[in-house]
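anyone seen this seq b4? input:
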Amino acid sequence: MAKQIEVFQDMSMAGPIAARPALRLALIEAAVDPWRVDLERSAEVARSAMTSEDVILFRRAAGQDYPAAALTLWGNSEGYYVPNIFPLDRGSLTFTQYNTILKDFIERVAAPVADKFGFKVTTTASYQSPDNWLSPNTALKLRRFSAAANKSTGASHPSDERRWFDFLVTIHRSRDKLGADMLARWLYEVDGWDVDSAHKLAGDFERSLALLEFYDEN
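predicted toks r here
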């Protein structure tokens, strides 16, 4: 069984912010077939988001294994990042399709010009596990609970409940960030929980962290 789950990759371009205007022009010029830039739509997105940051919308023609799609570059204090890639027609992209389009953008558009202006392109891993999301101690507590738990009863057994509580308190104190959806996917796809139990635990995880946060604030 796989030890990781496939996820949407993140991409960022970081470098000297004073060079970003020149980088912007170079990125636009580098977007040749099958890529192109939609500056009109870029301006519309920026206006609707009520942001003063630079927004550049790129469009990619359909490939052999994925549909035509749009990729957005969003400015930040370090340069740019990609918040989203979405199909131009209805539907959604699979993880593999999303990451393939992102890789194509990096290879054809971003990477060839980034170095010229002192920018570095970085991406997150396409396959991840709790080790990517959590500090070592928190990841250990999650794995300890999941490995020892009776997967047919969730965290209802007193011993399982204590290990579950230990994980919840540890992640709350560490301030590690983990979405309930990612937790549910990992429990189900990697660690052998049935889908209903995985989602039930993920729901309990979300409510418990909200309760712990409320307790701290009050």
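Strands lie at 5-6, 11-14, 35-37, 55-60, 69-75, 79-87, 120-123, 127-128. The mean pLDDT is 94. kinda curious what u guys think
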